[in-house]
Amino acid sequence: xxxxxxxxxxxxxxxxxxxxxxxxxxxxxxxxxxxxxxxxxxxxxxxxxxxxxxxxxxxxxxxxxxxxxxxxxxxxxxxxxxxxxxxxxxxxxxxxxxxxxxxxxxxxxxxxxxxxxxxxxxxxxxxxxxxxxxxxxxxxxxx
Length: 143
What we know:
The chain has four helices and seven strands. The protein is of the alpha+beta class and 143 residues long. The chain has one domain: Gcn5-related N-acetyltransferase (GNAT) (Aminopeptidase, 3-Layer(aba) Sandwich). A hairpin with a 4-residue loop joins strand 3 and strand 4. The two termini are 26 Å apart. The relative contact order is 0.15. The mean pLDDT is 94.
């Protein structure tokens, strides 16, 4: 498996959008909106590829100095629970550390909280609803 940074508006970015839609939005009867995609040109996009096929993707949105938000992590359904998501997230954390980020946070769907806890993320605050699902803010030091 190869993990790379994906260039915005590249063919790989289009594949990542399709994967995000298929895994995260379509099951809820939703589509990625222009509002949700606004500003993605200034965000970091990563993908895990197996034999040149995208199997997982994640977006990193820089916040204030040293803080980054992970969002829209999607792993192809036939590759879930195989370590692909963990490997992708760890690789992204390493890259973001190299870029000077010291803390990462994300909004985990309730069902995914145990996955992120295994990777060192800690719950912050109370659960909240987002796109009709319960979510938990989670944070991790990258230092």
